[in-house]
Recover the amino acids of this structure.
């Protein structure tokens, strides 16, 4: 890829992308594991890696530091998360400036979860932003950044219906977003419906599906609940039947994720975004099962 091309341009070319999501570690051991993962991932030459941003900006400093170090010390293209939670406009401008100073020019603009937790009412920060659309506009007004947004194959938890969700995604594109990455999901048809409904509302930007291979049954069910995704009953039964065998769970998780990933690519998904939980083994096994290296953008 050309160094000056934005991530939006890269994803729009039609080549298969693949990417990984990381989060700022809280401990020295966690940081060691993370950098092992970063170096392992770097050897695969992914299209990008994204770095999450804690609730209420709770990991803001670590996210900025980690994303900047990836930009400076590796060959990877980092994508920094930014949310509206717990920050006024001036604070958000400052964070964008910190990213720019660290050499990071691609951001994922997210509204973020309600500060009081999922299931509670969303309350914007005084002097802050209420919607991701506004955050996209703010970032784009501050420089030549490539901006991505979130998409929800099963609908945003607060959305009245899927048509409204599709319209919001089109509005994010109109505000300057160049690509979208979905929340985790488990049914290919949910992604296919999202793409079709969004296209009907005028959304043409690449929508990259987010995949999380199951490595722990209780954990994946918790993540699914937090993101508003449904863990299909038939799939849950397969995992619960072997829940006491960690190796078998991991193996089945790779098989299920690889099958789902291949089906997504077969229907035209622009690539795959893997939620790694800072451990790369399962996602690398999925990558290898798909033979992604030869065709990745």
């Amino acid at each position: 890829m050309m160094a000056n091309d934005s991530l939006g341009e890269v994803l729009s070319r039609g080549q298969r992308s693949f990417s990984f999501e990381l989060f700022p570690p809280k401990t020295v051991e966690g940081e060691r594991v993370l950098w092992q993962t970063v170096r392992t991932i770097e050897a695969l030459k992914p299209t990008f890696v994204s770095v999450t941003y804690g609730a209420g900006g709770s990991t803001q400093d670590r996210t900025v530091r980690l994303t900047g170090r990836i930009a400076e010390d590796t060959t990877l293209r980092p994508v920094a998360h930014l949310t509206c939670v717990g920050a006024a406009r001036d604070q958000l401008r400052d964070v964008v400036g910190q990213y720019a100073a660290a050499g990071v020019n691609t951001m994922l603009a997210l509204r973020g979860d309600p500060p009081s937790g999922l299931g509670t009412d969303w309350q914007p920060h005084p002097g802050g932003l209420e919607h991701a659309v506004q955050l996209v506009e703010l970032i784009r007004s501050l420089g030549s950044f490539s901006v991505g947004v979130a998409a929800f194959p099963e609908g945003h938890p607060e959305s009245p219906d899927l048509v409204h969700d599709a319209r919001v995604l089109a509005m994010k594109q109109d505000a300057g977003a160049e690509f979208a990455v979905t929340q985790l999901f488990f049914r290919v048809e949910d992604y296919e419906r999202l793409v079709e409904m969004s296209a009907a509302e005028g959304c043409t930007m690449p929508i990259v599906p987010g995949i999380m291979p199951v490595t722990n049954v209780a954990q994946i069910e918790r993540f699914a609940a937090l993101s508003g995704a449904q863990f299909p009953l038939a799939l849950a039964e397969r995992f619960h039947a072997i829940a006491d065998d960690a190796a078998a769970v991991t193996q089945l998780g790779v098989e299920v994720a690889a099958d789902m990933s291949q089906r997504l690519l077969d229907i035209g998904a622009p690539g795959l975004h893997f939620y790694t939980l800072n451990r790369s083994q399962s996602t690398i096994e999925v990558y290898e099962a798909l033979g992604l290296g030869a065709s990745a953008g």
Residues 215 and 250 are 5 Å apart (CA to CA).
